[in-house]
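Hi R.,

Here's the input for the SAJ complex you asked about:
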Amino acid sequence: MKIGVIGLGYVGLPTAVLFANSGHQVVGVDVSPRVIDGINSGTYHMEEELLDTMLQSVVAQGTLRVNYDLEACDAFVVAVPTPVTNYKIELKYLESACRNIARFLKQGDLVVIESTIGPGVTTGPIQAWLEESGLKAGADFSLTHMPERVIPGNIFKELTENGRVIGGIDRTSNEKARALYSSFVKGEMLETDAMTAETVKVLENTYRDINIAIANEFLIICDKLNVNPWEAFAIANQHPRVNILNPGPGVGGHCIPVDPWFLVEKAPEEAALIKTARARNNAMPNKVASDILDILAAIQGKKVSLFGTSYKANTGDARETPTQYMVQSLHERGIALNTYDPFQILPWGSSVGSLQEAVDGVDLIAVIVAHTAFVELSPEQLATLTNCRHILDCTNRLDRAAWEQAGFTIHTFGHFRNSLVK
Ligand code: SAJ
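And here is the predicted structure with SAJ in place:
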């Protein structure tokens, strides 16, 4: 089959590569010169080695071609972003992708929407944009929503092994989508209707957001009670029906903090818990900033280094990263700081490029992200680079005994006051 993949981001590009690798002719379309020129010149690299090798090979074989312009295909897969701005979902990229497809749509084609969308969008605006082709959904072409559900950092495995939801507008759409994706998906594919598939995806991510929010709220309550939350959670999680997630400095990325708003938009009155959970998670960077302020005051320090600017461990992805909001909050309070991340240098003014620069002249190091490079840092080595001996561990991953042995004080996130008592 000839497949057009629109949007070559963290889902679209690997999907295009996997289709091409399984023998289809694939045309990848994107608006970014970095992506198109990079792929065409062989200088674009994917974060996962296996996918990177596959990308180079399908481009060399000509089974994947990438371009700014779309062309006629038998199936179209849409994986463009659907960001949320001021609590509203922006469908502009989706609209432009669908209107673009409408120009080439012909009898018998299949359109698959992978982008995350709120309930009702497939049979609402998406169908309407596609029908500007003059063709009727169902009668002339097939349409399904197949939400992507992969976790960045493990894309190849998740794309091939995860179960999929197929939410077609009719049975034929579901059958066509199943046949197409069977070329690389080994996981179970569950068929339903478009509205259910849209709802499933946002329920999943909202469920995770709320579960993280309760962990964060428990941390704040434990802090008030002077109970070590990490110890309390570890014990509570021994219970067979309890699974408290990890509290942390906030919820970043482009999915978990975004998708709940798709439900809020549909049911603003009813989604009270969802909104509260969002507010709780959004307040966490500020909680870290306040703790930093308190520790600096107690140790008579002035400057902090924030270790980690990605939204989570072992990725260079900084979308919606909590660190960004922490930096803002600390700046507003007049605290001197720098940020350090082995994966990236961000244009925040305060971002430094080496561990040595990061720890030079600081009084406190706040470990925000559990990058392996931080968790496995040698306390003895760090001790030779800086006079700073105070660490706030927001990840609870540092080996406290080893750090204390090397002369550091580890301040526990949610329980740091304990370490300030002499
Ligand atoms: N986080 C916590 N505590 C936890 C788990 C995560 O504070 O116990 C934070 C992380 O540090 C990060 C944020 O939440 O800032 C989101 O991280 P994540 O690992 O939960 O999720 P993503 O955004 O990397 O990927 C998610 C995945 N969903 C789930 O794990 C339930 C993935 O399956 C989805 O497909 C993806 O969102 C998406 O695209 O929707």
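One thing worth noting: The first strand starts at residue 2 and ends at 6.

Cheers,
M.
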